[in-house]
Amino acid sequence: MIGKLNHVAIAVPDLEAAADLYRNTLGATVSEAVDQPDHGVTTVFIELPNTKIELLHPLGENSPIAGFLAKNPAGGMHHVCYEVDDITAAAEKLKADGLRILGDGNPKIGAHGKPVLFLHPKDLCGTLVELEEV
Amino acid sequence: MIGKLNHVAIAVPDLEAAADLYRNTLGATVSEAVDQPDHGVTTVFIELPNTKIELLHPLGENSPIAGFLAKNPAGGMHHVCYEVDDITAAAEKLKADGLRILGDGNPKIGAHGKPVLFLHPKDLCGTLVELEEV
Q1: Phi, psi values for residue A113, rounded to 5°
Q2: Would you list the DSSP string of B6-49?
Q3: VOC domain: from which residue to which, for each copy (chains A, B) (predicted)?
Q4: Cβ of A103 under 8 Å from any chain B Cβ?
Q5: pLDDT tens digits along B50-96
Q6: CB of A42 within 8 A of CB of A19?
Q7: CA of B28, closest CA in chain A: separation in Å?
Q8: Strands A129-133 and B34-36
Q9: Is B93 helix (H, G, I), strand (E, B) or coil?
Q10: Do residue B125 and residue A76 have CB atoms under 8 angstroms apart?
Q11: Helical (H) or strand (E) element with A20
């Protein structure tokens, strides 16, 4: 079912400092910051040859990553995103296997404009997993 | 400096259950478990089309991931590994920029038989980063 690793998301307390670190110290290709008000985050993408790192910073009140940064003030790995061909079929299979989909249990349109769902970390080795239909 | 994402490592409390989950529920290609006594871990690789997920489980006493699992009993994302062409040059550049290399500050031979180093998570947005020369 799962295909490519679309991205690894890292929540950071200082987006500019993190982007500078990846650009200047690690020598990677780093995008401009983009506010995603519908998702409560500002994102910066690190473009690697085979996948992406998504830097996440809270935007506005009730950001979904505010709690994570309160627990991890230095930042940390927040989730991994795997690509799937058919997110509806994936959701059915995962629910049948007993995995919990966060929210109302159905795919949503994610920060990249594509259908996504998030799986409960307790069902996946303590790892928050996003699936994105591509 | 950094090239491809070589792998994302996830520490898991039950290696067989985690491998089954990735193989049967997520439908991925999963390797057999390999003990790495010199590194204090048993590893399973999830082969994705563009990168790998490395499942880590403690092996023997003094495993370097025992403390992580004590703090995260359900498991969790442990590190990311980026590829570099020249690990000696990378180590010099990173030290000059003030980043701390774990251990004695020099690259070592890693679990995959290649020169690696680990950078202090506090210097990299709370993320433990491995660099591997390829």
Answers
A1: 80, 10
A2: EEEEEE-S-HHHHHHIIIIIS--EEPPPEEETTTTEEEEEEE-S
A3: 4-134
A4: no
A5: 999 999 999 998 999 999 999 999 999 999 999 999 999 999 999 99
A6: no
A7: 6
A8: unpaired
A9: helix
A10: yes
A11: helix A15-20
Q: What is the ipTM of this complex?
A: 0.96
Q: What is the pLDDT of residue A112?
A: 83
- Which pair of structure tokens corresponds to residue B79? 């590190």
Of B21, B80, B94, nearest to A8 by CB-CB distance is B80
pLDDT value at B115 more than 90: yes
Residue that is written with structure tokens 């983009």 in the block: A34
Cβ-Cβ contacts under 8 Å for B61 (sequence gap 6 or more): none
Give all domains of chain A, ordered by start, each with its CATH number. Answer: 5-133 (3.10.180.10)
Q: What are phi and psi of A64, to 5 degrees?
A: -65, -10
